[in-house]
Design brief:
Layout (H helix, E strand, L loop, with lengths): L1 H25 L6 H8 L3 H7 L3 H15 L15 H17 L1 H12 L8 H27 L9 H26 L5 H9 L11
């Protein structure tokens, strides 16, 4: 029984990865379960055994990415983020995945430029809205702590700043999904993030 469950788990993961490849190549609307089964080396029936339909498969791919690539709001709620430098590194690590992890690279391009957020994919849109709001809430908590400890400018509103951080990261993903070489190359990412972080550093006005 254990071996059967392990094999089923491996087959399910293979189908998810095949789906990512097919969605990436064809776009979500044009992809079929038959395409995905062929890519995974399994029958269409095997795909249906693990997933109800294409929508279910896509939603479970999204969940798989969240759980295995740390794309969760909890990524920002770690109490070890105690300085602006810690937050800066967390942002850089998050963005670097686009370049360093080919699975993340494909998925981010997929959700930003190769699918339609309408009709049957309304559930994904709802999930994204909830995810976005949850990330902003966690970022707000981090920024509030950093403001209290003097790590971030005291005139910054935590909620407002949290939105800025989210827009900065997702804005880059959006641009990269269209043309990553025009907007930024990997070697410039840390410099760009440092420039962004300057907006939040306390201003040392010196003593008159």
């Amino acid at each position: 029984m254990r071996r059967t469950k392990e094999e089923a788990g491996k087959t399910r993961e293979a189908i998810l990865m095949a789906a990512l490849d097919v969605f990436y190549k064809k776009g979500v609307s044009r992809a079929t379960l038959a395409d995905i089964g062929k890519e995974a080396g399994v029958t269409r029936g095997a795909v249906y055994w693990h997933f109800k339909d294409k929508i279910d498969l896509f939603l479970q791919l999204d969940e798989y990415m969240a759980q295995t690539r740390r794309f969760t709001p909890e990524y920002w709620s770690d109490e070890s983020i105690t300085s602006l430098a810690d937050l800066r590194q967390r942002v850089v690590d998050r963005l670097m995945k686009f370049f360093d992890d080919p699975i993340v690279h494909k998925f981010q391009i997929l959700i930003f430029s190769r699918m339609e957020y309408i009709d049957d994919f309304k559930a994904f849109t709802v999930n994204e809205e909830q995810y976005q709001r949850a990330c902003i809430v966690e970022l707000e908590k981090v920024l509030a702590r950093l403001i209290e400890s003097g790590q971030v400018r005291s005139d910054i509103r935590p909620r407002h700043a949290a939105r800025h951080f989210y827009v900065y990261m997702d804005g880059l993903y959006d641009c990269w999904s269209i043309d990553e070489t025009e907007f930024l190359v990997r070697d410039e990412l840390e410099e760009l993030t440092d420039e962004f972080m300057m907006l939040f550093k306390p201003v040392n006005r010196g003593v008159n």
